[in-house]
Amino acid sequence: MGKITIKDVAALAGVSVGTVSMALNDSPKVSTKTKKNVMAVVQKLGYRRDPYARSLSLSSSRSIGFLAPGFRNPFFGEVAEALQFAVEEKNNSLMFGITNDSTKQEAKLVDQFLDRGIDGLIIIPSEDSNPDLSHIRNLLNHDFPLVFLTGYYPEIPFHTVMADLADGSYELAKGMINAGLRNIIIIAGNPSLTPFRERIEGFRRALDECGVAFDENKVIISDGMSYEGGYAAIDKVYDEIRPDGIIAINDVMAMGVIGRLRSKGIRVPEDVSVAGYDDISISSIQETPLTTVEQPIALMCSEAVDMLFSLIEGRIIADGVVRLPVSVKHRRSAKTG
Amino acid sequence: MGKITIKDVAALAGVSVGTVSMALNDSPKVSTKTKKNVMAVVQKLGYRRDPYARSLSLSSSRSIGFLAPGFRNPFFGEVAEALQFAVEEKNNSLMFGITNDSTKQEAKLVDQFLDRGIDGLIIIPSEDSNPDLSHIRNLLNHDFPLVFLTGYYPEIPFHTVMADLADGSYELAKGMINAGLRNIIIIAGNPSLTPFRERIEGFRRALDECGVAFDENKVIISDGMSYEGGYAAIDKVYDEIRPDGIIAINDVMAMGVIGRLRSKGIRVPEDVSVAGYDDISISSIQETPLTTVEQPIALMCSEAVDMLFSLIEGRIIADGVVRLPVSVKHRRSAKTG
DNA sequence: TCCTCCTTTTGAACCGTTTCAATCAAAATT
DNA sequence: AATTTTGATTGAAACGGTTCAAAAGGAGGA
Lengths: 337, 337
Fold this sequence. Notes:
Helix content of chain A: 40-55%
Structural class of chain A: alpha/beta
Oligomer: homodimer
Mean pLDDT of chain A: 94
Order of helices and strands of chain A: HHHHEHEHEHEEHEHEHEHEEHEE
Strand order of the largest sheet of chain A: 2-1-3-4-5-11
Shape of chain A: elongated
Number of strands of chain A: 12
């Protein structure tokens, strides 16, 4: 037997197709009696509305896209999980794609998602040192509902939800200074990318405020935001600078830093304080629990989803960046006064 | 101006709607000249096919669903990433949902996905101690394309791709025995769930083969497969059993085991060898790098996707479980001979 | 020039919903 | 009893593609 359609239901229930449709949508125009009747037939036939026909009529798929750099950094996995919950709350589904920190790949996935009929899109910006953002501009030109999460592309500071990153490194640095450290460095990526820029800003503000000299070579630019990146950064600068405090741009990188220091026989935190960023779940369970900055993931995600749905539903929203408060987790890897 | 449809393209190109459709699909029935012409108009108008109308006609959304317990265990994040790549290869998109190890939540998400018109579904089974599998049976009854990944529900050993889990713990245990350990335990979850059962089997086989007595209380049943679960398991049994080797069911749990042992002043691996399972990326970069079993994630995922597409395309496939080889990573946390 | 065959194009049916103006029936009002 | 109002239902158009039998066009052969 062929597929069961709304026609079959209508026929068996002895009403018109239109009525069945309205009954299924619980429209007040249909009498309770008819609704019951229709529902009974639906049950009996095991009928299920065809999502494609429905989408065509409603021009909505009730699904949204999500683009992240990848899950090698568990932080993004935690974000994905929180985001899925937030989306599910709204009875929508989440498609995801991995950009690998390449805007080219990002553009490809955007195109693919558009071919799937997503209603909106949430993007964690790629840390691409040579970004091509034409696809983003294109979306924006068409008023496609788009929200950035955890950061934004420098030229495009619209509809973004992120943590107050500057605040996190400010507190971290201040804590280290209070603990008597004076030669603190920060390991970041390409400072033209906002998440890095903001963290560096906070770091600088703390030094300035405390009268500790800030200069350019306290900012170490690493190209990989990974364990290996942290490892390599130490090899590159430790012997020369001999820092007593190190702030890494994320937890995985901080672990790389600690790993390399230990293997050189340098003690953490006795000789050098190390702090990370993100508070991924394994950070607290390291042998030397990591001092780090917690981003309010669940809150960020629900905020981003709310923002996205405002855009989808055409409600007017002020452009701009919503910043949510971070909270510093003082643990063993760093001395903070 | 309204939405650009295929009609607009047809009008401007001076051909029929049918021809435009065929041109877009690169059908051999359309002349090269016409194709070029149509494409030019498409370009000019910035036309894009409506995915909903297309899906309705083709009865396919070119997207598939993926259900995982969650991303707290980074292993699942790595699987999600690999799966996304495998699916993208086929020019499809991936929807994902988090089951939280609850078959009830799993059922809810399956229902939601069905309402989105997915073409097929890949599920990592939930470790639900009291599973309700009616939704799975329902899918199977309707011949809905469904593939299980990393394990399967005991009553439903169909279309599954997983690693040869027994083999991993077999080798792990054998290695420990060869290193002279004799009092080895394994920490698992509910043994009615296949992934646990298989790992226990391999463990047992190794003991049997080497003439080391196996008995029930060498299998510790923990209820959380988390860091905390590993921690608690040590509190529960260490003092009584005094094992010299411990195999945990996954890496995160193994880290919990190590964390608790260390805090009790017990040295790893000098006093106790500890091994994990999965080889998540942070395992190799722990202060004591973890001996563990690598699952061939990329291979499993591409295999699962191939299997799923066979089902979707109606190719006939033998039922059953495909097992892929694991490889043991001998690192510092365990003595293996 | 006429006929045949092959390639291209057309046009309408179809996919399965939603929506809404028009109709119908029953209840309320005069 | 006739008229108006209210409430429930109908039927057809719309959504925007794909597909395929039939028609048209063009090339080649007799």
